[in-house]
Amino acid sequence: MLLRRDTHPPSSGQSIYMFWQDDCTAMTTIVERRPIAFTLGFGVAMIAVTIVVRLILGALVPSLTLDGIGLVLNWIFVGLVIGLVAWLGWWEKIRLTSPVNRRAIPYLLPFAVMVFLPTAFGFAIPEVSLVRGINVPPWAALFVIIVGVSLGAALSEELLYRGVLLRALEPKGRAIAVVLPAFVFGFSHISRVILGGSIAEWLPQMILIVLLGIGLGAVAFRLESLWPLVLWHFAVDVGGLLVANPSPLLELAVLVLIGVVFVMGIGLLWQDRGRAMEPLQNPVRT
User: Fold this and answer.
1) From 124, 138, 215, 261, which residue has the greatest number of CB atoms within 10 Å?
2) Do the Cβ atoms of 148 and 67 come closer than 8 Å?
3) How far is the C-alpha of 214 from the C-alpha of 269, rounded, in Å?
4) What's the whole-number mean pLDDT along residues 32-56?
5) Which of 172, 161, 165 is nearest to 276 (CA)?
């Protein structure tokens, strides 16, 4: 008995879809099998993109200020990260479709204080220049700060560090899944140096960002949903950029809150370690 073979080749649409499926499978395999290498490699890639974008924009649009280049770069990262999530198909895995664990809401208290703290020092719209020699109107400056900077950073950084990288590294243990992305999170802010900042300013900021990232990652596991951290990141960036009188008292208060968040994160990771050790210490006897 002869087997009938389909002699019709797949259509172009089917070929593209099959190629897309194979490509997504290969990408997912890389992320899941080598999550540490992927995490470090993606961090290096982001720094490389920053350098390349600055060189290209500096050559093509020499009138752009460093703030203007940073704004473009911010949304390039948003596109890259959202594209990565779509490529992997991890919308559910990174907890974008999950409800918030209400029992974990108290862990957001120090983060909430961090958001409302700048209100005690007043708000003002700073001058923003995207092109040399021209300051944008106040309404445009507000739009740039709220949408261009704060929203972009909240989406790209939370989806990447507390989303993709956290969940990719989770099989390695929650401590690694939290600490390694936190270090990449802090180091990636060397982009500020590439865009004209000083290493002396970046280094202490990097340390604080790492400590904050550890607390954020540990709380992300408890919340089950990524959206509270996206909203927090957005709100805290808006408040920080619009604060009128950034006094040493405000800086001290922020340092204390970051310390609280870090200690809380270490405590949560210690709890997770204890729970992971329980089956080993108390094996079930049959």
Assistant:
1) 215
2) no
3) 9
4) 93
5) 172
